[in-house]
């Protein structure tokens, strides 16, 4: 049997021997600038089987749905507060979905390892030290190599894999994220600027407590002013920063006090479910580790967390709360909102993202529709969404409805190429290239640029990358492959769009929806094997294929650009293209000139039911 040194992440310590490395995934080599991944022994990614991905997605979601009542009761017991499923879903529903999907991915990466003989450095660890300080900190921690190294090391021991452990002097706690919290205050502590903003916010509330708490709505400043004036509210702009204090809840003595309730949470396993039966070992392990991973502010120091939340300058008793951003990972906002919703306040969430309502799988979209009373979408597709607790209301694209791009005469044609860099480690499940599958996306990006270089059109490309922390080093990779490629240095995204002749998007996101709504010449492509569409959207995208807007291969997109490049506007503003553009945008990204007025009616309707 061949013997290897097993590498779990980029930070797995090296072993001094002559054995080759076997990499758990391409993420171990994420920072490579060249593309010689085929020269390395890399484990095949389990979700390359996309049918398995769909089954796992449904299995995990059903498991959480079946057991959320138990989770709510558990959280109520350890915090001595409300046993209310909606209360805990607002607080921890998004986090719990992320956690189980992330841990299942890590579990499967280890379970599917081939039967080889591996050497691995043995690292001491304390599983509870993986616990994040807050939910917001969790969203940083789980993307890091230290967090994933510790999780993988733990799973290997649970699964009893055949590993020859090599002793080393490295303690895994040296990689602990605890060091990130050493300089974080243990109480509310703000800079002079934030103290000034807090003072002004409190002063505003003394003058008048608002009936509507609107924060990070995604609306432009103009639309938000119109909205608040229409609601007869002063157009005060709330600053998110004062509701995100950095406080250290990691007090180790509290961990000892909680030891008596670190027993597994008794989630049930539906024996009638084949998926549950096939993944029983993981589900049992998940119940064991879950109490060790609930963030410190909820698990160890909830009383302090609640006290400090209520001391922040939130409105005292709003009748309606509206956001499009803060509901995802902002602990203080979510705790405040859950308290107010529990007392009768109505809750509105606006659509956050472009894959919503088109991607076949999207956990974030589904959980978002379970939290509020009303959920506002960017378009009207007449889809039956009565299965969600929230009432779905189409209002238009919140981000760009009041934006207008003035047509500028360009001295030189400019193709703005929009790329995306995913995290190297998987997160929530969606119909996108997951983890190392991003390298397939990167291959398509290179094919597109190479195809245009044949006719010298690549000289007109400006690449604008959506950079993610702990990603794949796209900037250095692409510069290594194409040294002459120009990277976009214009900070203002919409200004960069305005200065471009053609927008080319390479992924399913908000970008092409925004540019199409702004009626800017737009073309996009992606591999449908990774960016799967839901059944109700397939026909709409086929119509865009027919007029050249959407392409399913980089070669097709490049060939089409060569065809229309001499008269881009002639193609884009033709009757058939504009007809399909308008139909599509009405469904997915409607530019609504009456956006503020429609949202006013929605919020007033909710207030009347307060």
In brief:
With 610 residues, this protein is α/β, with parallel strands linked by helices. It folds into three domains: 46-185 and 247-299, no CATH class; 192-244 and 314-400 and 593-608, Rossmann fold; 415-588, Rossmann fold.
List keywords for this structure.
5-stranded parallel sheet, 610 residues, Rossmann fold, alpha/beta, single chain, 6-stranded parallel sheet, 10% strand
Strand content: 5-15%
Give the mean pLDDT: 91
Biggest sheet layout: 6 strands, parallel
- Specify the structural class: alpha/beta
Description:
Helix 17 (510-517) links the parallel strand 14 (502-505) and strand 15. This protein has a six-stranded parallel β-sheet. 43% of the residues are buried. The chain has helices at 50-79, 85-111, 135-141, 145-159, 192-207, 221-230, 252-257, 274-278, 280-293, 296-299, 302-311, 331-342, 363-368, 438-453, 474-481, 493-498, 510-517, 535-546, 554-564, 568-572, 575-588, 595-608, and strands at 3-7, 20-23, 41-42, 117-121, 163-166, 212-214, 320-323, 346-350, 374-377, 391-394, 415-420, 461-466, 486-487, 502-505, 522-525, 550-551. The chain is globular, with a radius of gyration of 25 Å. It is of the alpha/beta class. It has 22 helices and 16 strands. The protein folds into three domains: 46-185 and 247-299, no CATH class; 192-244 and 314-400 and 593-608, Rossmann fold (3-Layer(aba) Sandwich), CATH 3.40.50; 415-588, Rossmann fold (3-Layer(aba) Sandwich). The model has no long low-confidence stretch (mean pLDDT 91). The longest helix has 30 residues, at 50-79.
């Amino acid at each position: 049997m061949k013997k290897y040194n097993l590498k779990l992440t980029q930070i797995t310590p090296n072993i001094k021997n002559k054995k080759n490395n076997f990499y758990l995934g391409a993420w171990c080599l994420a920072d490579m600038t060249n593309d010689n991944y085929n020269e390395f022994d890399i484990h095949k990614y389990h979700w390359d089987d996309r049918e398995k991905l769909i089954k796992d997605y449904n299995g995990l979601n059903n498991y959480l749905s079946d057991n959320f009542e138990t989770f709510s009761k558990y959280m109520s017991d350890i915090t001595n507060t409300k046993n209310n499923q909606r209360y805990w879903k607002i607080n921890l529903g998004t986090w719990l979905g992320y956690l189980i999907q992330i841990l299942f991915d890590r579990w499967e990466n280890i379970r599917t390892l081939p039967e080889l003989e591996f050497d691995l450095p043995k690292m001491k660890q304390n599983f509870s030290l993986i616990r994040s300080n807050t939910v917001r900190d969790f969203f940083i921690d789980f993307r890091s190599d230290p967090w994933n190294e510790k999780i993988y090391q733990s799973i290997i021991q649970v699964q009893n894999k055949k590993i020859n452990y090599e002793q080393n002097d490295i303690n895994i706690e040296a990689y602990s994220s605890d060091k990130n919290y050493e300089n974080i205050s243990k109480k509310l502590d703000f800079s002079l600027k934030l103290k000034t903003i807090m003072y002004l916010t409190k002063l505003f509330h003394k003058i008048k407590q608002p009936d509507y708490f609107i924060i990070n709505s995604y609306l432009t400043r103009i639309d938000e002013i119109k909205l608040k004036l229409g609601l007869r509210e002063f157009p005060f702009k709330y600053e998110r920063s004062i509701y995100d204090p950095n406080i250290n809840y990691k007090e180790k003595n509290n961990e000892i006090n909680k030891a008596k309730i670190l027993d597994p949470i008794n989630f049930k396993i539906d024996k009638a479910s084949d998926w549950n039966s096939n993944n029983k070992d993981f589900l049992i392990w998940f119940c064991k580790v879950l109490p060790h991973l609930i963030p410190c502010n909820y698990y160890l120091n909830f009383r302090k967390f609640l006290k400090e939340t209520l001391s922040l300058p939130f409105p005292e008793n709003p009748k309606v709360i509206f956001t499009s951003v803060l509901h995802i990972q902002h602990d203080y906002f979510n705790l405040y909102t859950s308290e107010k919703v529990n007392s009768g306040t109505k809750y509105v969430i606006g659509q956050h993202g472009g894959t919503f309502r088109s991607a076949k799988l999207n956990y974030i979209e589904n959980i978002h529709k379970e939290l509020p009373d009303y959920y506002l979408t960017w378009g009207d597709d007449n889809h039956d969404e009565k299965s969600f607790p929230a009432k779905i209301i189409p209002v238009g694209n919140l981000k760009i409805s009041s934006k207008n791009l003035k047509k500028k005469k360009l001295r030189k044609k400019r193709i703005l190429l929009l790329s995306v860099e995913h995290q190297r480690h998987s997160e929530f499940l969606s119909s996108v290239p997951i983890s190392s599958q991003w390298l397939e996306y990167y291959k398509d990006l290179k094919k597109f640029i190479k195809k245009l270089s044949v006719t010298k059109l690549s000289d007109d490309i400006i690449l604008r990358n959506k950079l993610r922390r702990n990603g794949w080093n796209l900037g250095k990779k692409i510069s290594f492959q194409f040294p002459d490629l120009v990277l976009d240095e214009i900070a203002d995204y919409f200004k960069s769009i305005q200065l471009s002749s053609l927008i080319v998007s390479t992924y399913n996101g908000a970008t092409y929806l925004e540019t199409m709504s702004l009626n800017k010449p737009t073309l996009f492509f992606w591999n449908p094997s990774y960016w799967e569409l839901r059944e109700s959207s397939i026909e709409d995208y086929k119509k865009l294929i027919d007029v050249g807007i959407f392409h399913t291969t980089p070669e097709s997109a490049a060939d089409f650009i060569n065809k229309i490049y001499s008269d881009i506007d002639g193609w884009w503003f033709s009757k058939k293209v504009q007809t399909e553009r308008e139909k599509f945008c009405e469904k997915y990204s409607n530019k609504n000139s009456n956006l503020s007025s429609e949202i006013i009616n929605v919020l007033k309707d909710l207030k009347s039911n307060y």
